[in-house]
Automatic annotation (TrEMBL):
InterPro entries: DNA_pol3_clamp-load_cplx_C (IPR008921), DNA_pol3_delta_N (IPR010372), DNA_polIII_delta (IPR005790), P-loop_NTPase (IPR027417). Pfam families: DNA_pol3_delta (PF06144). It catalyses: DNA(n) + a 2'-deoxyribonucleoside 5'-triphosphate = DNA(n+1) + diphosphate. Keywords: DNA replication, DNA-directed DNA polymerase, Nucleotidyltransferase, Transferase. Its EC number is 2.7.7.7. One of its GO terms (molecular function) is DNA binding. Belongs to the DNA polymerase HolA subunit family. This is DNA polymerase III subunit delta. It comes from Candidatus Kentrum eta.
Length: 355
């Protein structure tokens, strides 16, 4: 059966399923789902826990061996199998999981933990077998437009409400960092004097915990989100990040996009390309949007602009490195502004004229 995360508490009140598949890339969501299942299992006498890491060399037959081997002390068992290599379980794992699903153990609950799964993986035979035998919980990313509702739901579960203005500010400040957002909610619950959190409560309490990470720029530029690109860059400068590593990430992104754009132009499918590259697998939809917005020629032009930014950072051209990086980031996001370039420095001008 398919379960939404918010349906899990009610499901557990009716009893445990013999198998759970928990898929998602957000650690907070995964940990909370595991915590709910684990608490219910413990209450029902599942006091033993075995944790297995399923890498490329993992012997999947062990899950059925555990099913056939009750605990020496008669304890019921939680068996956690975490796929750590990305993708699915492979042929051996698929066979073992389908066998397990056909005869789940009465003294054991299997929890299979994976990263985000695409539609093809969810249609696989092993996944469908586990879905029929137990419950599958897909944990989708809480993106910007869904974050306010996530905050409201979380507060409602604690008997609190929040005003529209306050939830908007909180979501904006916590962008990209769900764990920090959850922690901030807990802090607000503790300090708020009423059952409704208002704008002033948020402004007084919230520190800027947004996760301004250089690789966050990859997603914001691919998505064409110029506002978020500018905010991330501003946050990086406030944190004291040097411009050169930021430029390195953007150049890497541009080159990767150009390479994949040429592969697509040659007849390859974008889904097939990204499936082979872990760094791009979950960004496939964003990449498709970026390629629809700007073609290979435009991305080649961005690479030339990046070269000018590099010269500014290294002092070979006049200009502010941070302003130049902002112009490049916005260009990659689909917004063009005048490039802050005053030409080569005196030391970089060759004899006979400016370049």
């Amino acid at each position: 059966m398919q379960l939404k995360p918010e349906q899990l508490p009610a499901h557990l009140k009716r009893g445990l399923a013999p198998v759970y598949v928990i898929s998602g890339d957000e650690p907070l969501q995964t940990d909370e789902a595991l915590g709910l299942i684990g608490q219910s299992a413990h209450d029902l006498g599942f006091t033993e826990r075995v944790v297995l890491q399923a890498d490329a060399r993992f012997d999947w037959d062990i899950i059925n061996q555990y099913a056939d081997s009750p605990s020496l002390f008669g304890e019921k068992r939680l068996l956690d199998v975490r796929i750590v290599a990305g993708g699915g379980p492979g042929q051996q794992g698929s066979r073992a999981l389908m066998e397990y699903a056909s005869r789940p153990s009465p003294h054991q609950v299997l929890r299979l933990i994976t990263g985000q799964m695409d539609a093809k993986q969810r249609k696989s035979k092993w996944y469908q077998s586990l879905d029929r035998a137990g419950a599958c919980i897909a944990l989708w990313p809480v993106t910007g437009q869904n974050l306010p509702r996530w905050i409201e739901t979380r507060l409602r579960g604690r008997g609190m409400t929040i005003t529209e203005e306050a939830v908007g500010i909180l979501a904006q400040r916590m962008e990209g960092n769900l764990l920090a957002c959850a922690q901030e909610i807990e802090k607000l619950i503790l300090v708020c004097q009423t059952r409704e959190i208002g704008l002033q409560d948020v402004l007084q309490s919230v520190v800027d915990s947004a996760h301004f990470d250089t690789f966050g720029l990859v997603e914001s530029t691919l998505a064409g989100d110029a506002g978020r690109t500018a905010r991330i860059l501003s946050g990086l400068w406030e944190e004291g990040t040097e411009p050169l590593p930021v430029l390195g990430v953007l150049i890497w992104e541009i080159r990767e996009v150009i390479k994949m754009a040429h592969q697509v132009a040659g007849g390859a499918s974008l889904e097939g390309i990204t499936r082979q590259q872990p760094a791009w697998r979950r960004r496939s939809a964003l990449l498709a949007r970026a390629l629809d917005r700007q073609g290979p020629t435009a991305w080649m032009g961005m690479l030339r602009v990046a070269g000018r930014v590099d010269q500014i950072i290294k002092g070979a051209r006049r200009g502010d490195p941070r302003e130049a990086l902002l112009a490049l980031g916005l260009l990659m996001s689909g917004v063009e502004i005048p490039f802050p370039d005053a030409g080569p420095t005196a030391d970089a001008i060759p004899p006979g004229g400016a370049g």
